Amino acid sequence: RKYQDSQVATLVAVTKSNTKVQLAANIGSPADMTAAIKQGAEGVGLFRSEFPFLGRDASPNEEEQFAAYKAVAEQCGQHLCVIRTMDIGGDKPLHYLNINKEENPFLGLRAIRISLTRPELFITQLKAILRAAAYGNVAIMLPMIISAAEIAAARRFVNQAQVELTKEGKAFRAAVPLGIMIETPAAAVIARELATECDFFSIGTNDLVQYTLAVDRGNPAVSSLYSHFHPAVLRLIDGVVKAGHEHKIWVGMCGEMAGDLLAAPLLTAMGLDKLSMNAPAIPRVKEVIRRFDDEQMRQVLVKALTLKDANDIRSLLIDFVQQAE
Ligand code: PEP
Ligand code: MG
């Protein structure tokens, strides 16, 4: 380790060629902001807004949600605060929504699919987010998108939320960016089309790896097959970044891969604009980005994309990262 974490917090994440990568924090509640700020996070790249819904008997109301979102938006200051609409279902069931038990919850009524079928829940959340946006630099992010139609439907709910807030005379910001998570293979494959419908992409590798490889992200029996270095995953990510940039929108990543220091050279070379991770990972990812110039990282990316096996790619990256230590 070259630096203490406390020193790294004040440095920016730039390569030796001066290419900047924004490093943001993944959080589940306003309380997580203390650690995020201490580690030098440039805002929040993923606020998992379902956490305030868990461990209770009913959904938090608009005021409760507004208070949580406002607290985080204010702590982000000038930086962007990306609030993901609730990602309930899958591994995060909610008994009070009375969703039928499913054989395959990860392929079932989850995330945006619940939001679009439960307008009362979705509009309440959107109203709380739009109100919080009056206090900071807030963006809305939709989870588990597979089609442009879902983005259009969500946008109609955003408009409806604005109409209701106007009627109720509540202060809010109308111009809030709307982005999507790229965490299904479908979204990655049609990224070019989706890019014209939204303001940013954030790649969710936890689910993207699970759905691309057909490997349950939580099942220890298949965990040796679960790797974000699988060539299929790397090619999807590379394509998503290119698709987003062709359409002039920023592309970030907020899955666990973004906090993997071995992945940092590849992701930087692919051109990811923002990496969002759990706060403790920020200093080490930053340190790796600062260690190389763009050409070194481009070369290791080109080499990685020729390899056929996730383990070989990982070994290549271990050697690469260590060589400069
Ligand atoms: C992801 O899928 O990578 C992601 C960030 O979302 P979550 O882990 O909350 O499913
Ligand atoms: Mg996910």
From TrEMBL:
This is Phosphoenolpyruvate-protein phosphotransferase. General (non sugar-specific) component of the phosphoenolpyruvate-dependent sugar phosphotransferase system (sugar PTS). This major carbohydrate active-transport system catalyzes the phosphorylation of incoming sugar substrates concomitantly with their translocation across the cell membrane. Enzyme I transfers the phosphoryl group from phosphoenolpyruvate (PEP) to the phosphoryl carrier protein (HPr). Residues 6-292 form the PEP-utilising enzyme C-terminal domain. Keywords: Cytoplasm, Kinase, Magnesium, Metal-binding, Phosphotransferase system, Sugar transport, Transferase, Transport. It is found in: Cytoplasm. The keyword Signal does not apply. Its EC number is 2.7.3.9. One of its GO terms (molecular function) is phosphoenolpyruvate-protein phosphotransferase activity. The keyword Transferase applies. It is an enzyme of class 2 (transferase). Its cofactor is Mg(2+). The chain holds residues 248 to 572 of 572 of the full protein. It comes from Sporomusa silvacetica DSM 10669. It comes from the Bacteria. The gene is ptsI_2. It catalyses: L-histidyl-[protein] + phosphoenolpyruvate = N(pros)-phospho-L-histidyl-[protein] + pyruvate. Signal peptide: none annotated.
